């Protein structure tokens, strides 16, 4: 991503998410597997071409974002070094540009943010803390882990998700900039994720948060990290989260599932990219079988109630389904929804994509119920 657009992108997309909470002129329709809230904000978005071969069921708003992303002409991530891949445009850039081009109103943020560096084994990591402007606390606390295959992306790229959760749940959110691969190999990101959780538990009161009401949320690689944090908290006998929300999590290492086959060439995530991410984060491919990577092989007993969100047009769709089944078999309460017609990374696009707005509202409702 171009550095000069990064922060503006984050601000626009972050503020955009609050639209999901405050737009009043909406109507709700229910499908067999998801609740779709039609947004007037993005009603004018129309794709320029036909649906792509890899995603014939794609929704118009989602397709418009994907077309904008393709328009930048970036080289495929799987052909680049990690350093160059981090310079590519992201779905957040595409959303930002569409918001500007369509003169979509951006609400004022309902949160304040501050940065915090903390010590971890072998270095430091950065946290971004979102605190609601309304109310006095103590607020519930959410520790959030961004996506990017353990290799790319950052807090700005995923600002929309973290800010949206803070605003809709009325919670303090601690977004974690764990160290990335290949500079930091497995299990660095996993250890950083848990260190950040420990810090949040110990410092909850100073954050105006209630240490008895803490949850973890993650997207993609971050979904894997969030689940691992719950497992490590259980095993280390510290307070486990009261809930976890896993959005299209990486949950196993077999890249021959039905969704990997069906959406091998999907955008913005495809099978080749997943192989590239795996090679960058792991030292040897044998590590792909480690229960920290292949969560379906982990001991999942005693984990908190879990919400799993999946996207239809996503190689990782089946990962989420398999993990839900494994959690249920381990006696964990699981609630899950699949959103049709959308791709990987849709969750943070609430200002443009109705399914994202619905998914964020669903996640917020699940978290609020858990915090009660």
Q: What would you say this structure looks like, in words?
A:
This protein is of the alpha/beta class and 372 residues long. It has a single domain, classed as Rossmann fold (3-Layer(aba) Sandwich), CATH 3.40.50. It is 36% helix and 20% strand. The protein has eleven helices and ten strands. The protein has helices at 3-22, 60-71, 82-85, 91-101, 159-169, 188-202, 221-235, 258-262, 271-281, 317-329, 354-371, and strands at 27-30, 35-38, 111-120, 123-132, 139-145, 172-177, 209-219, 243-247, 306-313, 334-343. It has an eight-stranded mixed beta sheet, with helices on both faces. A two-stranded antiparallel sheet has the order 1-2. A hairpin with a 2-residue loop joins strand 3 and strand 4 (123-132). Helix 5 (159-169) packs across helix 11 (354-371) and helix 6 (188-202) crosses helix 7 (221-235). The chain starts with a helix and ends with a helix. Residues 1-40 have low confidence and may be disordered. Residues 1-23 form the signal peptide.
């Amino acid at each position: 991503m171009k550095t000069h657009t990064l922060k503006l992108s984050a601000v626009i997309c972050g503020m955009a998410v609050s639209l999901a909470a405050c737009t009043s002129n909406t109507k709700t329709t229910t499908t067999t597997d998801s609740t779709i809230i039609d947004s007037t904000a993005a009603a004018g978005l129309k794709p320029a071409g036909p649906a792509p071969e890899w995603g014939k069921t794609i929704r118009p708003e989602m397709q418009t974002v994907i077309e904008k992303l393709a328009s930048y002409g970036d080289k495929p991530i799987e052909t680049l070094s990690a350093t160059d891949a981090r310079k590519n445009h992201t779905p957040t850039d595409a959303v930002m540009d569409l918001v500007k081009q369509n003169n979509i109103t951006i609400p004022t943020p309902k949160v304040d943010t501050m940065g915090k560096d903390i010590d971890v084994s072998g270095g430091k990591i950065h946290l971004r803390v979102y605190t609601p402007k309304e109310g006095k606390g103590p607020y519930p606390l959410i520790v959030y882990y961004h996506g990017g295959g353990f290799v790319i992306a950052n807090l700005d790229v995923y600002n929309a998700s973290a800010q949206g959760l803070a605003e809709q749940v009325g919670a303090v959110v601690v977004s974690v900039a764990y160290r990335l691969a290949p500079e930091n190999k497995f299990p660095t990101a996993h250890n950083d994720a848990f260190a950040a959780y420990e810090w949040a538990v110990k410092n909850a009161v100073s954050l105006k948060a209630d240490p008895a009401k803490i949850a973890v949320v993650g997207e993609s690689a971050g979904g894997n990290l969030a689940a691992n944090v719950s497992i490590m908290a259980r095993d280390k006998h510290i307070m486990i989260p009261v809930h976890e929300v896993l959005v299209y999590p990486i949950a196993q290492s077999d890249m021959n599932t039905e969704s990997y086959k069906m959406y091998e060439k999907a955008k913005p995530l495809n099978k080749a990219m997943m192989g590239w991410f795996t090679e960058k984060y792991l030292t040897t491919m044998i590590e792909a079988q480690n229960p920290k990577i292949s969560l379906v092989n982990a001991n999942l007993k005693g984990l908190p109630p879990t919400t799993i969100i999946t996207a239809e047009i996503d190689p990782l769709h089946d990962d989420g389904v398999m993990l839900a089944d494994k959690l249920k078999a381990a006696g964990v309460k699981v609630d899950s929804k699949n959103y049709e017609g959308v791709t990987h990374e849709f969750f943070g696009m609430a200002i443009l994509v109705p399914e994202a707005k619905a998914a964020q509202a669903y996640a917020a409702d699940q978290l609020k119920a858990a915090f009660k």
